[in-house]
Design brief:
The structure holds 2 protein chains of 2 kinds. Helix content of chain A is 0%, strand content 51%. In chain A, the strands form 2 sheets. In chain A, strands 2, 4, 5, 6, 9, 10 and 11 form a 7-stranded mixed sheet that branches. A 4-stranded antiparallel sheet of chain A has the order 1-3-8-7, with no helix packed on it. In chain A, a hairpin with a 2-residue loop joins β7 and β8. Chain A is globular. Chain B is an all-beta fold. The radius of gyration of chain B is 14 Å and the shape is globular. Classes of the chains: A mainly beta, B mainly beta. Chains A and B meet through β4, β5, β9 and β10 of A and β5, β6 and β11 of B.
Amino acid sequence: GAVVSQHPSWVICKSGTSVKIECRSLDFQATTMFWYRQFPKQSLMLMATSNEGSKATYEQGVEKDKFLINHASLTLSTLTVTSAHPEDSSFYICSAIASSGKETQYFGPGTRLLVL
Amino acid sequence: AQKITQTQPGMFVQEKEAVTLDCTYDTSDPSYGLFWYKQPSSGEMIFLIYQGSYDQQNATEGRYSLNFQKARKSANLVISASQLGDSAMYFCAMREGWDSSASKIIFGSGTRLSIRP
């Protein structure tokens, strides 16, 4: 099946620093990628939709200046958490849809962020 | 308004028994897709099964089957012959619209399934 990778798998950082998370589709091209956030024992909450070559579409309540998304190529989208604070600590998961328009999204393994 | 509702926060089932995880959805779009994902403690989201709104038959994938009741807007997941490895969080999700390349997926709150040996 299709493979989506995320890097890093986990990161610990100091409050105030910025953290970049990469999402790559390894064996298919993805015109659209999605970024989700999941707090402990809760469901996945969509943060934004990342489209290759255009600006990301953010969900209501998600600060676009706080969570910068760049979808520079058909296989890579990045999420940068700027000036991270402890409340940004969460599990961040990306997903990608193949350009061929398959019915399902393929999820990355997730990135655990802990802001001290 | 909640688009995807999973009313069972947790379930305990004896190994080898069948289990049904409930999911109801709300949409006015005639074209939509329904998904079930499994999330073990490692955090990865594992795709289990998909049902399109126009599919005539209930989807099946190995031990997984989706009981699609369109008029009742329910899409329950049935796992037959449960195994210890089935213990995980299970999420029901929906995508609205026909264009699968652009539509986002909305997730339910999840059901934690625990299989007893």
